[in-house]
Amino acid sequence: MTDYVVIFITAPDEKVASQIAKALVEEKLAGCVNIIKDIRSIYFWQGKVEDEPEVLLVIKTKRRLFERLKDRVKSLHPYSVPEIIALPIVEGSEDYLKWLDEVTAQ
């Protein structure tokens, strides 16, 4: 099942997240993107601790599309260093993964 990944990306607001999500799905770089509102991110940036509201994108795709997806997100994202991390899908519904294959780029 390591042919598939879940990618986490944070964004400053729902508008930016929606723009990124729609582009990734329309361009077949992702099969599905969930947008989770109202998260709070605490992180170290440019010498100080930041505490900011954000939204989280949860993206399901094929592992081999990661580089293309990452490049596309960087072209759309307002952050100079956006969070773009992928975790392997270790197990999954065979039907769901078949669907993911069908709706993403070959």
Concise overview:
By secondary structure, this protein is α+β, with helices and mostly antiparallel strands. Helix content is 32%, strand content 39%.
The CATH topology? Alpha-Beta Plaits
Protein structure class: alpha+beta
Q: How many H/I helical runs?
A: 3
Q: Approximately how much beta-strand content do the residues carry?
A: 35-45%
Measure the end-to-end span: 17 Å
Shape: elongated
Q: What's the gyration radius in Å?
A: 14 Å
What's the CATH C level?
Answer: Alpha Beta
Mean pLDDT: 96
Q: Please state the second-level CATH architecture.
A: 2-Layer Sandwich
Order of helices and strands: EHEEHEH
Largest sheet: 4 strands, antiparallel
Uncertain regions: pLDDT < 50 for 5+ in a row?
A: none
Number of domains: 1
The count of DSSP E runs of length 2 or more, i.e. the number of strands, is: 4
Side-by-side strand order of the widest sheet: 2-3-1-4
Which bin fits the share of residues in helices? 25-40%
